[in-house]
Amino acid sequence: MENATAQVRDRTPDDSAPTDARSALRQRAAADARVEEGLVLVRDELDRMVGAHRADALVQDEVCAQLWDDLGDGLGGKLVRPRLVLAAYLGFGGRDVAAVAAVAAAAEVLHAAMLVHDDLLDRDEVRRGRPNVAGATRRRLSGRGLDPQVIDHQVTAAAVLAGDAGIAAAFGLIAAVPAPASVRVRLVELFAASIRTTVAGELLDMRAELIAPHEVPALTVAELKTAAYSGQLPLVAGGMVAGAEPEELAALAQVGLRLGIAYQLADDELGVFGDPAVTGKSVLSDLRDGKRTALLRTTWERADEDARQVLRRHVGDRELDELGAARVRAVMRSSGAVEQVRAVARTYLGSAVELARAQLPAAFAGQLDALVDGLVTRGR
Q1: Alpha-carbon distance values, 80 to 180, 246, 259, 360 (Å)
Q2: Mean per-residue pLDDT, 63-69
Q3: Residue 8 lies in a domain
């Protein structure tokens, strides 16, 4: 198994490669099919992992097994990060999607763990339209006559421990990747560095609540909190397993950074304007928490004094209702902030694609084109 990955890639130009649009579409369809094939294996890997950890935990106590059930319920969705792992792996000449499935699964488990902790910090108990770990724990404890503070403490403990368990599980998957030991070590270093960066971003995001909206370095927070593990990590990990050269990995990191920032900007918009039936995400929680997003900063900078009074009154109000949120949305639209932030996101996406086309294999650039389609407009 040690040599199942990191195949030697054929970098010899193919002068006979078809160049017409129809052939390009066929190649793209074939690449998409390989990604979908890999995602089936990723889902199988996730199911296997959760089942194995649940069985081990059940020996200890039913409540320990329940934690894995709740964490497992948070896995899945669109599998954006596994898609990026697979796209980079295939785009750099990888041929055995089974060999990279565990890496893609690890990226998804890490994401789920980060979301558990992020939701706890944001005091959110719903994710993708259903209770997250915290919400599920609260439901099970409600109706037992327990003191509300006791329930709150139990909910916090479950979310902290579930997130920790997910991070540990991600490293467990990496340890079992069928790749040379040197590749596994580099993957561990990559995941560890991404976690450190994300922790820094989360801390800055929390501290931003103490700062005026126009003073928050929102793009820096997006880079640290989201882009590092949502964009850079999966692309670089896939490239590593495929045997990409150091300079290619550096370019992949830059592509991932730009994709990740664009993704966060789009996500911030969905947190205020999205359709909860589609996104499974509340459109009130970010406003109630006074989230210092790039959208809020841009709105504040462009708003007049009357509009800023609306923001002061409603943003950060824990009792904010839909009527107050509608007033904030109206300010965001009328100020032009929504369109400006969308333009910034499109710029980051375009820059990522241009960099990929200029410095990375054509096969990967083609994969990237398919992945970024609709990234900024999802859920609207």
Answers
A1: 26, 24, 11, 20
A2: 97
A3: no
Measured CA to CA, the distance from residue 68 to residue 54 in angstroms comes to 6
Count of CB atoms situated within 10 Å of the CB of 306: 8
Q: Which domain holds residue 285?
A: 27-372
Q: How far apart are CA 233 and CA 104, in angstroms?
A: 10
What one-character-per-residue DSSP string does 247-273 give? Answer: HHHHHHHHHHHHHHHHHHHHHHHHHHH
d(CA 192, CA 1): 24
Residue 69: CB atoms within 10 A of its CB come to 13
Q: Which of 134, 192, 182, 178 is nearest to 160 (CA)?
A: 134
User: What are 25-34's pLDDT values in tens digits?
Assistant: 666 677 778 8
What residue type is assigned to position 22 of the chain? R
Is 246 buried (19+), middle (13-18) or exposed (0-12) by CB count in 10 A? Answer: exposed
User: What's the CA gap between 100 and 235, in Å, rounded?
Assistant: 12
CATH number reported for the structural domain that contains residue 74 in this entry:
1.10.600.10
Domain count, the chain: 1
Name the token pair of 272: 């205020």
The C-alpha atoms of residue 268 and residue 290 are separated, in whole angstroms, by 12
In eight-state DSSP terms, residue 6 is -
**283: in domain:** yes
Of 270, 262, 259, 261, give the one whose Cα is nearest residue 367: 259
Residue 3 in any domain: the answer is no
Is 70 a domain residue? yes
| pTM (predicted TM-score) | 0.89
